[in-house]
Specification:
The complex is a heterodimer of chains A (about 170) and B (about 80).
Chain A (H helix, E strand, L loop, with lengths): L3 H6 L1 H5 L10 H30 L9 E5 L8 E4 L8 E5 L5 E5 L10 E3 L4 E4 L4 E4 L5 E3 L8 E7 L2 E6 L7
Antiparallel strand pairs in A: 1-10, 2-3, 3-4, 4-9, 5-6, 6-7, 7-8, 9-10
Chain B lengths: L3 H8 L3 H31 L4 H21 L14
Helix pairs in contact in B: 2-3
């Protein structure tokens, strides 16, 4: 280890003439104050999230929307769609057991576009290998923190309609 | 002031050092809690559970007030030799 005298001769020491005794107590006080400032920032951020969630909640899907004819989506096939006055992409999946499911097409991790892997019953996010259950949107593997938001699918007169999901979704 | 405080300071020369280190550790623990609360608030708010975001905000605010309270316990530095 270099002695104090040797250190003082070094170029970095001449560029940054910093002394240990100056950084001993006072700077730790400043550090503690900075931590309090960061704490205030985190409080402010959480407050913004709470304000956004309470004052500007996500718009619910209102009423029923015609998507397509039932025959247009073969078994194992999918169809992407958006609803009027909304830019959220959705995906309609025709599962191998004959039922239809509709989900938001945005991965709950980082909003990458998900796709249905035919024959597996899995909805895959290609970005970070997130895997969702195509039957109920639950997370099976990967980083997504929440299940895929689901829409209710109504089959009537050979056509597919979607509406808002009735039950409250939980994590 | 009497000699009591001076003698105490002389007997426990690392007291201020321990005190400020403790306060900083408590701050860091508080901040970890707040980061966790922010993450939880985001996660649940995106799932339309706004009430959890509100509770997380209240928790975060309480921790911030506790942090402000702890600033009181920050030592102001070693007194000068002739400061008694």
């Amino acid at each position: 280890m270099a002695s104090k005298e040797e250190n003082n001769k070094k170029k970095w020491k001449q560029d940054f003439p910093y002394h240990k005794q100056n950084s001993d107590l006072v700077n730790r006080r400043e550090f503690a104050k900075m931590l309090t400032f960061v704490s205030g920032g985190l409080t402010f951020g959480t407050g913004l999230v709470a304000a956004k969630a309470n004052l500007f909640p996500k718009k619910k899907v209102v009423g029923e929307h015609l998507i397509c004819a039932k025959s247009e989506v073969p078994i194992g096939g999918t169809r992407s769609f958006t609803l009027k006055d909304s830019d959220i992409p959705y995906i309609l999946v025709h599962l191998e057991n004959g039922t239809f499911r509709a989900y938001e097409q945005k991965c709950t991790h980082l909003s990458c576009s998900v796709y249905y892997e035919p024959g597996t019953g899995h909805i895959i996010c290609p970005c970070h290998k997130g895997v969702f259950d195509a039957n109920d949107g639950a997370v099976l593997a990967g980083p997504p923190p929440r299940k895929l938001p689901k829409l209710s699918v109504i089959e009537r007169d050979g056509s597919i309609y979607i509406a808002a999901e009735e039950e409250k979704s939980t994590i | 002031m009497g000699t009591f405080r001076t003698n105490q300071n002389n007997a426990n020369i690392h007291k201020l050092n321990t005190l400020i280190s403790t306060v900083i550790v408590i701050f860091l623990l508080n901040l970890s809690l707040q980061i966790w609360l922010l993450y939880t608030a985001l996660n649940y708010a995106l799932e339309d559970n706004a009430q959890i975001a509100t509770i997380a905000f209240i928790g975060s605010l309480v921790i911030f007030i506790i942090c402000l309270g702890f600033l009181y316990y920050l030592p102001t530095g070693k007194p000068a030799e002739n400061d008694h």
